[in-house]
Write a structure and sequence with these properties.
Number of helices: 4
Radius of gyration: 22 Å
Structural class: mainly alpha
Oligomer: single chain
Number of strands: 0
Strand content: under 5%
Distance between the termini: 45 Å
Largest sheet: none
Length: about 110
Amino acid sequence: AVVSTQSTGNRRRIEKGAALTMGMVIVAYMICWLPSTTLDIIYMICNWMKYRFPIPLTPAFMKWLNTTHFLPSVLNPVIYAIRKEQFRRQIAKHFTNVKTFRMRRF
């Protein structure tokens, strides 16, 4: 089978864009979970070595830490909306056809 260079180039461009998007999602996930994971490791080592935990765990700090757990769920759609034109079109379509969407019967 003969594959044209134009379709191969287009395919590589699409794959490169998808890889970049996935890379952004993975980096966002790692950044969001890094504080909690680091704190858990420090806490485990302190318990194992019978040391007092060096970081004061205030309610505000715990709230911030819990918020970072949910941040990747918020960032995922934002990253896809920024990177993918098809995703943006579908979101716009759903928001512009709200009246039609409500009238449908399922």
